[in-house]
């Protein structure tokens, strides 16, 4: 049965990197994926102005999603200033009510980026709000699974308890798509994102006896459900 997965990141590109291989795998399996960035990530370039980089980030996010067969959305919040507000949580809850995802993927709860931590908090709050019987024309929806993706910037206390094998075709599709993002290529602050995540998938694959895998922490009440992506 086809499932819908919603990946919620702090900045455009975050979920592309961390959840992207799993999203590519799920799409190849016939599932539907939506990538939602809570901010544009427009302050992440040392030479481009935020106004210039915002335009580029949106284009890169749209392109990545199109390349792996996902849908792309971005909330209108500013990089570095994602509020931990009921309004922001309700915007995400409306997307959950309308799109009815089976799986949510977001950041880990500890990060060097406040936007990442807040995206994780907002995602959890939104999941709760969407499940409540409130007066919404979109109805209510409960999300079965809540997963935290592995990210080098969110490493504190992150111990995966779910490993998703990434087949070669999904890896190749992800790797071709992520090349189109300047930060992932190392053009902003020089971190070798693509090398890091490629190596991490191989390392995680070693742990579970497959070529490549992505590790997730299963969050909240999802711990008691067995099925994974
Ligand atoms: Zn980020």
Low-confidence stretches: none
Our estimate of the beta-strand percent is 15-25%
Strands side by side in the biggest sheet: 3-2-1-4-5-7-6
Distance between the termini: 12 Å
The CATH homology group name: LmbE-like
* CATH class descriptor name: Alpha Beta
Please bin the fraction of helical residues: 40-55%
Round the mean pLDDT to the nearest integer and report it.
95
Oligomer: single chain
CATH topology: Rossmann fold
Task: Outline the biggest β-sheet.
Answer: 7 strands, mixed
Put simply, the count of helices is 7
Main traits of this protein?
about 230 residues; alpha/beta; Rossmann fold; seven-stranded mixed sheet; 7 helices; about 40% helix; about 20% strand; globular; binds zinc ion
Walkthrough of the structure:
It comes from Candidatus Lumbricidiphila eiseniae. This is LmbE family protein. Keywords: Zinc. This protein has 229 residues and is an alpha/beta fold. The protein has a single domain (4-221), classed as 3-Layer(aba) Sandwich (Rossmann fold), CATH 3.40.50. 40% of the residues lie in helices and 18% in strands. It is built from seven helices and seven strands. The chain has helices at 14-18, 20-28, 50-68, 86-99, 114-131, 168-178, 193-208, and strands at residues 4-11, 32-39, 71-77, 103-106, 145-149, 162-165, 213-218. The chain has a seven-stranded mixed sheet with strand order 3-2-1-4-5-7-6, sandwiched between helices. α2 (20-28) packs across α6 (168-178) and α4 crosses α5. The radius of gyration is 16 Å and the shape is globular. The two termini are 12 Å apart. The model has no long low-confidence stretch (mean pLDDT 95). Zinc ion is lined by residues 10-11, 14, 113, 116.
């Amino acid at each position: 049965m086809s499932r819908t997965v919603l990946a919620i990141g702090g900045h455009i590109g975050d979920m592309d990197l961390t959840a992207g291989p799993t999203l590519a795998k799920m799409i190849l399996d016939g599932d539907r994926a939506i990538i939602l960035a809570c901010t544009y990530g427009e302050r992440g370039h040392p030479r481009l102005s935020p106004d210039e980089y915002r335009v580029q980030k949106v284009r890169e996010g749209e392109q990545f999603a199109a390349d792996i067969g996902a849908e792309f959305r971005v909330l209108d919040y500013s990089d570095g200033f994602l509020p931990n507000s009921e309004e922001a949580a309700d915007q995400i809850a409306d997307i959950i009510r309308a799109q009815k995802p089976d799986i949510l993927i977001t950041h880990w709860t500890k990060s060097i980026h406040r936007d990442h931590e807040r995206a994780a908090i907002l995602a959890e709050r939104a999941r709760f709000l969407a499940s409540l019987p409130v007066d919404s024309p979109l109805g209510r929806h409960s999300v079965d699974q809540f997963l935290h993706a592995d990210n080098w910037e969110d490493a504190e206390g992150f111990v995966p308890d779910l490993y998703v094998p990434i087949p070669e075709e999904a890896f190749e599709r992800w790797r071709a798509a992520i090349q189109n993002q300047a930060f992932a290529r190392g053009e902003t602050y020089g971190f070798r994102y693509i090398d890091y995540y490629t190596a991490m998938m191989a390392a995680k694959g070693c742990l579970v006896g497959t070529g490549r895998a992505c590790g997730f922490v299963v969050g909240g009440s999802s711990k008691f459900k067995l099925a994974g992506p």
